[in-house]
């Protein structure tokens, strides 16, 4: 990848790239294309950031306050979990911006707002995910985040049971199975009553 002031020598870029300059940096990136080996693409931005998680390209684009707030909030909740990494990695070749959207919007804009502490937000999220159904990976990630935010295993079980009148037995049974798996992985079983 090119884009550093001393690396890009193409005609449009060379005259404009100076250390500390306010003009945008032009970055030339080879992009995988379905019928060709590489399709050249260009991104113009002031600040380029590349983050690599587990040896994979996790993000390319402008680092912004929303994204940084989202990353900071995820770190408070135990960091990007293996579950989230698997979800994002699975979709990186079809929707590479999806992880950035989740981090910026869900964590940078919403989860990091003042007014509710992280543990209470996680209870709300768990209730919604249980009612939605078919959210196994998200439930697993948020049970982990809820524990990292300070909720106890007993509180997670009670929050899951609280969804029963609203979500029904099938969804609560599925969610409780996921909660059990997370608690078992963290050596928090059996849950005291």
Topology:
Blueprint: E1 25-31, E2 39-45, E3 48-53, E4 56-62, H1 65-76, H2 82-91, H3 98-111, H4 118-132, H5 136-148, H6 153-162, H7 164-167, H8 169-185
Antiparallel strand pairs: 1-2, 3-4
- Rounded average pLDDT: 76
Strand order in space, largest sheet: 1-2
Biggest beta sheet attributes: 2 strands, antiparallel
- Listing every helix as H and every strand as E from the N terminus to the C terminus, the arrangement reads EEEEHHHHHHHH
Q: Evaluate the radius of gyration.
A: 21 Å
The CATH class of the largest domain turns out to be Mainly Alpha
Quote the distance from N terminus to C terminus: 56 Å
Uncertain spans, ≥5 residues at pLDDT below 50?
1-61
CATH topology of the largest domain: AhpD-like
Globally, the shape reads: globular
Count of individual beta strands? 4
- Number of domains as seen in the coordinates: 3
Oligomerization status of the protein chains: single chain
Structural class: alpha+beta
CATH superfamily of the largest domain: AhpD-like
Write structural notes for this entry.
With 193 residues, the chain is an alpha+beta fold. Helices cover 49% and strands 14% of the residues. The protein contains 8 helices and 4 strands, in the order ββββαααααααα. The protein has helices at 65-76, 82-91, 98-111, 118-132, 136-148, 153-162, 164-167, 169-185; strands at residues 25-31, 39-45, 48-53, 56-62. It has a two-stranded antiparallel sheet with strand order 1-2. Strands 3-4 form a two-stranded antiparallel sheet. A hairpin with a 2-residue loop joins strand 3 (48-53) and strand 4. Helix 2 runs antiparallel to helix 5, helix 4 packs antiparallel against helix 5 and helix 5 (136-148) packs across helix 8.
């Amino acid at each position: 990848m090119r884009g550093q002031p001393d690396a890009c020598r193409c005609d449009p870029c060379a005259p404009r790239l100076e250390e500390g300059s306010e003009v945008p940096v032009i970055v030339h990136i080879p992009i995988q294309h379905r019928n060709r080996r590489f399709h050249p693409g260009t991104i113009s931005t002031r600040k380029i950031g590349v983050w690599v998680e587990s040896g994979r390209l996790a993000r390319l684009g402008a680092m912004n306050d929303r994204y940084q707030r989202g990353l900071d909030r995820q770190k408070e909740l135990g960091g990007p979990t293996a579950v989230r990494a698997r979800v994002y990695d699975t979709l990186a070749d079809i929707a590479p911006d999806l992880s950035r959207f989740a981090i910026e919007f869900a964590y940078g804009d919403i989860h990091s707002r003042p007014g509710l502490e992280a543990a209470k937000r996680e209870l709300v999220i768990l209730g919604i995910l249980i009612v939605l159904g078919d959210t196994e990976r998200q439930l697993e990630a948020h049970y982990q985040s809820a524990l990292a935010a300070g909720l106890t295993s007993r509180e997670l079980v009670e929050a899951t049971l609280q969804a029963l009148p609203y979500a029904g037995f099938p969804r609560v049974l599925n969610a409780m199975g996921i909660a059990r798996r997370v608690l078992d992985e963290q050596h928090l079983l059996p849950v005291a009553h």
